[in-house]
Design a protein that fits this description.
By secondary structure, this protein is an alpha/beta fold. Helices cover about 45% and strands about 15% of the residues. The chain is built from 19 helices and 14 strands. The strands form two sheets. It has an eight-stranded mixed β-sheet with strand order 3-2-1-4-5-6-7-8, sandwiched between helices. Strands 11-10-9-12-13-14 form a six-stranded parallel β-sheet. Helix 9 packs across helix 12. The chain is elongated, with a radius of gyration of 24 Å. The protein starts with 7 loop residues before the first strand and ends in a 5-residue tail after the last strand. Bound molecules: nicotinamide-adenine-dinucleotide (NAD). Nicotinamide-adenine-dinucleotide binds next to helix 1 and helix 5.
Length: about 450
């Protein structure tokens, strides 16, 4: 049983690693954060966050100024000055759709190299999302090979999936629904102790299992949530064909059934982000390798491929040809409260609009810098919602930021050349909006 707070290191300062490192340090754990990206290391040491996440800036400032959080680009230093290492590197998708484990491999080899010279037992915790078998067959194997040490005897290993939601990451770190720990008895109980120290009386329900089950839990979780959203988007398409059909009412009706539940039943322009697209693809490819088909996952992906394009069809119905028309895009990040644009549906929508010959002007409260990296000079960037609407022939709500919810019909009518609005996220009352301007919304029948 651990009595002193273990020292931690975190390998990979993305959304998960930065939030994990900052929150543990904020709670008084000594954390060394390591990344191969020197810019991120320097920025963190100056207490500057390189991602937008509510509450994160304050937490980083406090953690750095108290001396609990330090960043380094020396992996040996990180290992030598910690007892537990979290691997939080990215696990993107290869061109063929399979999981790309190169960063996990690199990180485990770096850890193995440093552990070679370390006498004390050390726990390695894989938090990156990886397909079943990776923790034991890739991470453990690499560490053993490079360090010459034996797992369990000289070091331990666990898989501990991360479920935080971008946009609510700090909240989710402090109040998770549950913890999943996959590993041997010794490693699991070491990690459990760390979490007991972190959460105290607020310790969430915890499932302890082997690494493979824990790895699959993460994929099953994401696939199920994506399936729920694609399901309601499928129902939305039916509603669009029914006079006075409304998916919001249908979703409420089924969501009140406790067996279904109301969460993740919001119809919209489709899902994107840094996790679901690549995780569903990795799960599908993993299943193929073990001789299985996953028809529910296929359908979930298929529905999502065409969902964003419904907004383009709506625009043509409202204003005819899009050639030379100015289209205003409100919302670029893949969901509200983040600046992350990875696999955001806004990208697909904007590319389609440009192909149709439209002129695109866009605004997002936080993702403008990331958008500029993606679209460069191909689109126009507005400084606020109203500026984005000026002179436009059609406006599309692509991300449901709160500030867009406050826009009134008059904001569209008074600023647009041709007030036509497409609500891709169902944030407006159709009764009010459709009586005042040309209006279409996902899952809304004529
Ligand atoms: N973003 C999320 O909301 C979320 C939620 C749950 C789980 N996950 C999973 O967590 C993992 C990390 O996701 P993310 O979005 O934080 O990733 P990210 O792409 O934002 O960041 C990954 C970081 O790892 C660094 N890196 C790469 N190789 C490294 C190495 N050898 N050593 C140290 N650092 C290295 C990169 O420079 C980068 O800063 C992924 O597997 C993802 O699927 C992400």
């Amino acid at each position: 049983m651990l009595t002193d707070k273990p020292r931690m290191s975190v390998f990979g300062l993305g959304y998960v690693g930065t939030v994990t490192a900052a929150c543990f340090a904020y709670k008084g754990f000594n954390v060394v954060a390591f990344d191969v990206d020197k810019g991120k290391v320097e920025s963190l040491n100056q207490a500057i966050s390189f991602i937008y996440e509510p509450e994160l800036d304050e937490i980083i400032k406090q953690a750095v100024s108290s001396g609990s959080l330090k960043a380094t680009y020396n992996p040996n230093y990180a290992i030598m000055n910690s007892d537990i290492t979290f691997i939080t590197v990215g696990t993107p998708q290869k061109v063929d759709g399979k999981i790309d484990l190169r960063y996990v491999e690199d990180a485990s080899r770096m850890i193995g190299k440093a552990l070679k010279d370390k006498d004390d037992w050390h726990l390695v915790v894989v938090k990156s999302t990886v397909i079943p078998g990776t923790t034991n067959n890739v991470v453990k194997k690499n560490i053993e090979e490079v360090s010459g040490k034996t797992c369990d005897r000289d070091f331990g290993i666990c898989f501990n999936p991360e479920f935080l939601r971008e946009g609510a990451a700090v909240h989710d770190m402090f109040y998770p629904d549950r913890l999943i720990i996959g590993g041997s008895e010794k490693s699991s109980s070491y990690l459990l102790n760390l979490y007991n120290m972190f959460y105290g009386e607020k310790m969430p329900e915890t499932i302890i299992t082997n690494a493979e089950n824990a790895e699959l839990i993460k994929y099953a979780n994401n696939a199920f949530l994506a399936m729920k959203v694609s399901f309601i988007n499928m129902i939305a398409r039916i509603c669009q064909k029914i006079p006075k059909g409304d998916v919001e009412v249908v979703a409420k009706g089924i969501g009140l059934d406790k067996r279904i539940g109301s969460l993740f039943l919001k119809a919209g322009a489709g899902w994107g982000g840094s996790c679901w697209p690549k995780d569903l693809s990795a799960l599908k490819k993993f299943a193929e390798e073990i001789g299985l088909e996953l028809p529910l996952v296929d359908a979930t992906i298929e529905i999502n491929k065409t969902q964003p394009l419904i907004l383009i069809d709506f625009a043509k119905e409202l204003i005819g040809s899009l050639e030379g028309k100015r289209i205003s895009i409100l919302g670029l990040s893949f969901k509200p409260n983040t600046d992350d644009m990875r696999e955001a549906v806004s990208i697909k929508i904007i590319e389609s609009l440009l192909k149709e010959g439209a002129e695109v002007i866009a605004y997002d409260p936080k993702a403008m810098d990331n958008a500029k990296k993606i679209f460069g000079k191909k689109i126009i960037y507005a400084n606020n919602s109203i500026e984005c609407l000026k002179g436009a022939d059609c406006a599309m709500i692509v991300t449901e930021w709160d500030e867009f919810k406050n826009l009134k019909p008059e904001d569209f009518i008074n600023n647009m050349r041709n007030p036509a609005l497409i609500d891709g996220r169902r944030i407006y009352d159709p009764k009010i909006f459709s009586s005042k301007l040309k209006f279409k919304a996902i899952g809304l029948g004529e």
